[in-house]
Amino acid sequence: MDRDSGDKKRRSSGVGSKASSLLASARNSLNFAQITRSSSDSSSQSALQKLGKHDPALAVPQGQHNNSAGESLPGPGSTFKVGVWEDRNRKCRRTMEDTHAFLYNFLDTPAPATESSVTRHKSEKENAVLSSQQELVESDNGYFAIFDGHAGTFAADWCGKKLHGILEETIRKNPNSPIPELLDQTFTSVDAQLEKLPLKNSGCTAAIALLRWEDRVPSDRSVTGSVAVAQAAQHALANTNKITKAAQDAPPSPGKEREANTDTAQALPSDAIAAKLKGASTRQRVLYTANVGDARIILCRGGKALRLSYDHKGSDENEGKRITGAGGLILNNRVNGVLAVTRALGDTYMKHLVTGHPYTTETVLQPEMDEFIIIACDGLWDVCTDQEAVDLVRDVHNPVAASKLLVDHALNRFSTDNLSCMIVRMDKEGILRSQKGLPVVAGAVDRTSRVSEAEKIVQDTKQHITDGSTAAVGVSPSNNGAGFGQEGAFVPTILNGAVEEEPGAIGEGDSPEVALMPEMVEINRAREPVLQGTEQQ
């Protein structure tokens, strides 16, 4: 009996030891997973911090509406208002991978530039140190973008901080080129730069809209205002060249009359061009769009939804043919069975298949008909049609309230993705008044004393970094869990406030087993569930 009792005790002790060992192993695994995730988060953050030390654009703190481009506010002459609403969708998503950016005063629309003026500007940019006291150009040109990240938020965060600056520089260098071509060049440049950065597996979809004032000459083909004006200038120049040649070929007059005739002839082209432009061009509001992936841009025209983007998905026949033609395959509607979108920025490891060349559009707006623009990630469009979205918010004139309505609608429809929605509401009366104002190309902007809003934001950030009063890197509060007060209301990151990095943690209601899954141990950062915004006044 004693021997049997001893055996039972030993067996019981052995079972208990095994249970304790398994429990300890599970705890160690859980701790390891959390440490690994936290380490990955830190690694991702460090990459941006290192880049931010050398690039002030990456150190720009978030603005109102969690704006990655910084603090951008409408001016007295603004003819549109922006509203944004985000939600992590915490029931389905552990992380928030969406980022967005917008500017109320994007790069001003320049007059047609000659080669000498481009060279002069390049020299000014190289030799002049721009001061934070420079005057801001109130262009009333809008820039709006949403980036939906995957495999972490690095690519989306980077694009939110950088893409608009790259686009501005591309337009400056090519003032007479069509904007759709420059959008394609910008996306290609972004892809090339992301390829040189860390976290090469990170990528994002992108939906970009650019709203510009342009003086346009009636033309049979759709081109940018700058090109149209340049063509008018060329026609005017051709006509006046005949006058110039006639004056130069005229018989010489006594004394200095020949020199005077020549000077008059040389002065004629510019006067004739100015008269030609004034008579032929009209000021118009032009909307350009570019997208890769499945985020959409919708224009409401007279209550009808007009899609200005293209869904680049594995389920699309044309995109499927392109992928297979490049040596890839579509498996379960995914590129090589991995990526749901066929075009994206980043994703360097699949760049031979997943191109960054965007789908672009160009639309001359009709003030009497065009009411607002919706830009949203696929989390909305998975459960809502284009027309349904337009119908839901057409009578909601506050763009923030309209954005929230669409996000709430998607949540009620059981969307399983992150949700980001941006609405740009047009001011019809303001647009009509501005159309009667001074033409955009009346004179070139003196860029030695005036800067674009994006330049101004970066300059101010650089100055604060020099003064030691700003964060090393401006990471989106929605992406790392910062930016919320105790009541849950959105609190924008202020210029002098550092972005707090929160350790990785298992969300409330999540099971430890989920955290142990290898695919969940990634560089994604923990985020708060809801991002609220308020309309800018």
TrEMBL record:
<dbReference type="InterPro" id="IPR015655">
    <property type="entry name" value="PP2C"/>
</dbReference>
<comment type="similarity">
    <text>Belongs to the PP2C family.</text>
</comment>
<dbReference type="InterPro" id="IPR036457">
    <property type="entry name" value="PPM-type-like_dom_sf"/>
</dbReference>
<keyword id="KW-0904">Protein phosphatase</keyword>
<feature type="region of interest" description="Disordered">
    <location>
        <begin position="244"/>
        <end position="266"/>
    </location>
</feature>
<dbReference type="InterPro" id="IPR001932">
    <property type="entry name" value="PPM-type_phosphatase-like_dom"/>
</dbReference>
<dbReference type="GO" id="GO:0046872">
    <property type="term" value="F:metal ion binding"/>
</dbReference>
<protein>
    <submittedName>
        <fullName>Protein phosphatase 2C-like protein 1</fullName>
    </submittedName>
</protein>
<feature type="domain" description="PPM-type phosphatase">
    <location>
        <begin position="81"/>
        <end position="426"/>
    </location>
</feature>
<dbReference type="GO" id="GO:0004722">
    <property type="term" value="F:protein serine/threonine phosphatase activity"/>
</dbReference>
<feature type="region of interest" description="Disordered">
    <location>
        <begin position="35"/>
        <end position="81"/>
    </location>
</feature>
<feature type="region of interest" description="Disordered">
    <location>
        <begin position="1"/>
        <end position="21"/>
    </location>
</feature>
<keyword id="KW-0378">Hydrolase</keyword>
<dbReference type="Pfam" id="PF00481">
    <property type="entry name" value="PP2C"/>
</dbReference>
<dbReference type="InterPro" id="IPR000222">
    <property type="entry name" value="PP2C_BS"/>
</dbReference>
<keyword id="KW-0479">Metal-binding</keyword>
